[in-house]
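We modelled the chain as a single entity of 289 amino acids. Its sequence is:
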Amino acid sequence: MSNEINRRRTADHKALLPAKQMIRINGIPLAYREAGEGSPVFLLHGMNGESGSWRHQLHGLSDRYRVIAWDAPGYGASGSVGSSIESLSEAAFSLIKELGAENPVLVGHSMGGVVAGQMAIERPDSLRALVLSCSHWGYGRPVGEELMPRYSKRIDEIRSMSIEEFAQLRASRMVDEDADPEVVAFLAEMSKAVTAEALEKVGRANQETDTRPGLSKLDLPLYLLYAEKDRVIKKERTKEFIQALPAARVMLLAGVGHAPYVEDAANYNRTVRSILEEVWPDKPAGNAS
């Protein structure tokens, strides 16, 4: 597929996105996109993304819900905070409060799921449910230890490559080898929101966190979504996470890799919608696109 077609299709994706909005909290700018009205759903993207990564969910779930997606601190148009998981959790809760989106369902993907898990541990009474998508618990390493290769390698890559090369590399590693080139092009566009500083901070937050003890005691509806062809979160690690959280409802996303929200957006939206309908059963039926 030609580069021109890829650029045009990526532009089409972006054209359908709600515009970014900005809010300052304690002097720090936080960017987000929002669509729809009703019960709030807060989306937290992964390490190679930004709020626009959730394009299909902002479009496909907003007929019934107020869907909010942030640029995590250090990503896209958002300013930076500290490198602890607590600082990321606090920033997310502050944004939710400022937007009047109390008691949301959190949907956290990959790195975003680690942040969402910490949020649920800290303030379970402030949330309606927790959905962890292709995620994990962190690595529980000592504070201040040298960064693991899985994070230090990314930092080396982003510093040694152009942002276009880096974004294409990361996008290609998220999906199955025979993924639609349009999907890869979209993921690459979203990956351009990443910076070396953000990678270092969220990498350290992930590395020094272990949410399993807190999540195992959680009195909150908890859902684990995992992808059949995920090459980022290995099957053994997913299995260990499932075993650590016996109260969680586990749901398989068939035929997709680490970006199911765009690889098979229709099925991903149906899955998330089924969860939302369990959480808020009084809402009328709607379009499952």
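As a brief sanity check on the tokenised model: Confidence is low (pLDDT under 50) at residues 1-13, 285-289. The radius of gyration is 17 Å.
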